Amino acid sequence: MIVLTRLNDARFAINPDLIERIHSTPDTTLVMVDGAKYIVTESLAEVIELIAGYRARVISMARDIPPGDFRPGQPLGLVPSATDTERSGESRPAGVTVPLRPRKM
């Protein structure tokens, strides 16, 4: 998130990944992907610099994550495996897919 200032000096944080475009005539206006617009006191160059800094921090943080003992094909543990589901008592294992049936036309 980057922190910006509205024209009434209220500060707010915004996700820069959701900014579609930025206009700078005469005030700096952020147009979001959902169409919302925010007018801020920062200049176009300042907003771009904040976005670049945010993205640099994200990359830096990702590089600081210690490498795990991950091998190609090894599950990362983000989704429960079938054995985890069996232990939890769920009726259908998480890794089992449901077969699709053709539509009747």
UniProtKB/TrEMBL annotation:
Keywords: Cell projection, Cilium, Flagellum
InterPro entries noted in UniProt: SwrD-like
Domain of life: Bacteria
Region Disordered, residue ranges: 70-105
Pfam families: FlbD
Protein name per the record: Flagellar FlbD family protein
Organism: Arthrobacter gengyunqii
